[in-house]
Amino acid sequence: MPQGPPHLLPQGQPAPTHQHMHAQQAPVRQVPAQQMPGQHFPPGQPAGHPAQVGGHVGGGNAGFGRVLLSEWTKIRTVRSTMWTLAVIVLLILGLGVLLAATVNPKRDDDYVSIALIGVIIAQLAAGTLGVLTISAEYTTGMIRTTLTAYPRRIQVLVAKGLVFAGLMFAVGLVTMGLTAVIGKSMLTSRIGDSSADVDLFRSVVGSSLYLAVIGLFGLGFGVLLRHSAGAITALMGFILLPMIIGPFLPHSVGEKVMQYSPMFALGKLIGGGDGDGGPGPWPSLLLIAVYAAIALIAGGIRLRSRDV
Questions:
Q1: Burial of 177 (0-12, 13-18, 19+ CB in 10 A)
Q2: For the segment 231-262, what is each residue's pLDDT rounded down to a tens digit?
Q3: How many domains does the chain have?
Q4: Does some domain include residue 59?
Q5: pLDDT band at residue 219, thresholds of 50, 70 and 90?
Q6: Is the sign of the CA dihedral 47, 53, 57, 59 positive or negative?
Q7: At 123, phi and psi to the nearest 5?
Q8: Contact 100, 200 (CB under 8 A)
Q9: What does the pLDDT look like over 5-47, one tens digit per residue?
């Protein structure tokens, strides 16, 4: 059948046919999703597809180096840390100089071990600082911010341990090295040269490592107990009790208790000597490091499995 002329629009334009309307459908325009207050669309992602929710907040891409830097910033900007380190330096250096100026040892005594006697008390301050490094964050609630910014809890604990141990070793090394040199020279000028076989490396470096290990021990107790007073009490008991209760135990038992204690290890590192039995200086230090590792592992398990 012949088709009639197309209907005209008011302006004289022909009305579109059915085929023409089907071919020239209007393109579908994507309407952006409404951005809620505080919502942010990541660069390169269409605004119509907001970022998925549910990942870790802000911490997934943070590198371990940034965590180390963060822990270093925290530990060096806390005033109590600097005061405790000053007490450690004062105990080691002050007692060393005081003893070197007042005692009258024999010519066959080890002058270095006399000068470093202050580390016996300084270890208590080092352990306390290790506890406070983590327990203070639980007290103030800062630990929640730390773990929100970097949710990998074990890596946070490792970073704290590395920063703290490095700082404690450095402070101990400088302080004990200076104390050993000053104390020995003072005793030599007063008494004369000592005939004792002195291992300066063992006394200075070994004792510095010991301070770092005791601090890590405190860190382990702190993250395990999450309470400053309880963790410090437990640490002090572990350091001091073996030497206190050992003499009251049966001889064979008490001897072993004392020989495998932190105080015995420190005495070996400062004064050396293998005539009194027990592990040597370096095996004793390794044993204390194993104790500290056990405390840190137990604390890490609790940190990972329990809410903060």
A1: middle
A2: 999 999 999 999 999 999 999 999 999 999 99
A3: 1
A4: no
A5: very high
A6: negative
A7: -65, -30
A8: no
A9: 544 444 445 555 544 444 444 444 544 444 444 444 444 444 4
Whole-number Cα distances in Å, 198 to 117, 150, 180 = 15, 47, 11
Query: Tokens 């990942």 sit at which residue?
Result: 55
Q: Which residue has the tokens 């180390």?
A: 68
pTM: 0.77
DSSP 173-211: HHHHHHHHHHHHHHHHHHH----S---HHIIIIIHHHHH
Burial class (CB in 10 A: 0-12, 13-18, 19+), 66: middle
Buried b (16+ CB within 10 A) or exposed e, 5-20: eeeeeeeeeeeeeeee
Provide the residue range defining the domain that includes 120: 64-305
Contact 199, 110 (CB under 8 A): no
Cα separation, 23 vs 19, whole angstroms: 6
Q: Would residue 49 count as lying in a domain? A: no
Rg for the chain (alpha carbons), in Å? 34
